[in-house]
Design a protein that fits this description.
The protein has 406 residues and is an alpha/beta fold. It has a domain at 25-254: Type I PLP-dependent aspartate aminotransferase-like (Major domain) (Aspartate Aminotransferase, domain 2, 3-Layer(aba) Sandwich), CATH 3.40.640. It has helices at residues 25-37, 47-58, 70-80, 98-105, 150-159, 211-221, 245-276, 313-322, 339-352, 363-371, 384-404; strands at 63-67, 88-91, 109-112, 135-139, 163-167, 175-176, 179-180, 187-191, 204-208, 282-284, 291-293, 298-303, 328-329, 372-376. A seven-stranded mixed β-sheet has the order 1-9-8-5-4-2-3, with helices on both faces. 49% of the residues are buried. Bound molecules: pyridoxal-5'-phosphate.
């Protein structure tokens, strides 16, 4: 049997996977263009304004407001919606912490449904049980770029008169039943942080089909000003979340490549799913029928230790990395078990004189935290051969450890 790289054998692969970010002379000219224009501020230049129009059109939305990052986008939407002290927001426990911290930063309490084992997205069937008189919004997270079952979420939201703020921070170009995500709900948020499928280093965007929500977000992101009114007229108390011209210029170039790259990621993910699920003990997440296209920000798969001689996922990750495959762990625990989040909820409830709401147990999110693994989006920009090597490395490890158990 071939010796594993982790045991001193030859690694299956030594060449790197595609790196990220990717750029060429177009980004260089865009940045120089901003520099030499002398207009580095969004209120004087045109890059942010043009990016807003182009990104809104790309995401099938009528309006967009560019902000400093995805965390700020979530916070601005919540503030624009008037979500305030003691209000409740129902969201997913399996997401980047910013989804929940945005709620807490405006004084609202996040409540978490569990996730579905096949997509790792929030389970809409658990939303209604969490609705209380204080619930104001649902915040579905399109995890890894995989659209949430938005029909189910929207039906519950309309029935209970709740807002829907999509956390689409990982879902640029993702399509649900023929429509891009973001403005399916009332407002949606995107991140352009360094790892994202298009990036300006940092950056964020809010999209909406409602002029009223877009105007309110514009006001909150611009220190409470009102469009078209006097510069020092601030009817709302808010902060400065404005994007600068630099990332906007770079993002406009990246936006020209996103469609081709999203198609390539989707094709790679489809092929990798086919080959990886042939390895005993590995199961990629599945694409529901209503997903027209996942953004494949994260290729996600289950690891079953039993098929690998009981070895923990951390050992498998080490072995894959030694073979030259950049598998990573995902979010380690449900947000309902994250100390900082739960402590903050407790402090807020104490100060507001509220009982701490009971959070449901999230066994699937807990299990994904232990045995759910990721490959990042730039890996999906690799070739067929690259995908074959990922599966071959996994198979090599499974054969070595699986047979050790026999
Ligand atoms: C699901 C999700 N929500 C929110 C954010 C926050 O975005 P940012 O890092 O741009 O603040 C991220 C980004 O990492 C994310 O992945």
């Amino acid at each position: 049997m071939t010796r594993l790289a982790i045991d001193g054998g030859e690694p299956l692969r030594t060449q790197p996977f595609p790196s990220w970010p990717q750029w060429d002379g177009a980004e260089r000219s865009a940045v120089l263009g901003v520099l030499e224009s002398g207009q580095w501020w969004s209120l004087r230049g045109h890059q942010v304004r043009d990016l807003e129009a182009e990104f809104a059109a790309y995401q099938d939305a009528h309006y967009a407001v560019a902000v400093t990052n995805g965390s700020a986008a979530l916070e601005v939407c919540l503030r624009a919606a008037g979500i305030d002290w003691g209000d409740e927001v129902i969201t997913s426990p399996y997401t980047f912490i910013a989804t929940a911290s945005a709620c807490l930063l405006v004084g609202a309490i996040p409540l978490f449904t569990d996730i579905l084992p096949d997509t790792w997205n929030m389970d809409p069937s658990q939303i209604e049980a969490l609705i209380s008189p204080r619930t104001k919004a649902i915040m579905p997270v399109h995890i890894g770029g995989e659209p949430v079952d938005m029909d189910a979420v929207m039906a519950i939201a309309r029935k209970h008169n709740l807002l829907v703020i999509e956390d689409a921070c990982q879902a640029h170009g993702a399509v649900y039943k023929g429509t891009k995500v973001g403005a399916i709900g009332d407002m949606g948020c995107f991140s352009f942080q360094a790892s994202k499928n298009i990036t300006g280093g940092e950056g964020g965007m809010i999209v909406s089909n409602s002029e009223e929500w877009a105007d309110r977000c514009w006001s909150v992101h611009n220190v409470g000003r009102q469009r078209g009114k006097a510069w020092y007229h601030h009817p709302v108390v808010a902060s400065n979340y404005r994007m600068t011209e630099w990332p906007a210029a770079v993002l406009r170039v990246q936006l020209k490549r996103i469609e081709e790259q999203t198609e390539q990621r989707a094709a790679s993910a489809k092929y990798l799913t086919q080959v990886l699920q042939q390895v005993p003990g590995l199961q990629p997440t599945t694409l529901p029928a209503d997903t027209t296209r996942s953004a494949n920000h994260l290729f996600r798969f289950w690891y079953q230790p039993a098929a690998f001689d009981g070895k923990p996922a951390s050992e498998f990750i080490r072995a894959m990395n030694a073979e030259g495959i950049p598998v990573t762990p995902g979010y380690p625990e449900p947000l309902g078990a994250t100390e900082a989040i739960m402590n903050r909820i407790a402090v807020m409830c104490r100060k507001l004189g509220l009982a701490v709401p009971e959070q449901p147990d999230c066994p699937v999110a807990r299990e994904v935290g232990v045995n759910g693994l990721w490959l990042h989006q730039s890996v999906m920009l690799g070739s067929r051969e690259d995908m074959d090597q990922i599966a071959a490395a996994a198979f090599k490890i499974q054969q070595a450890w699986g047979s050790a158990a026999n």
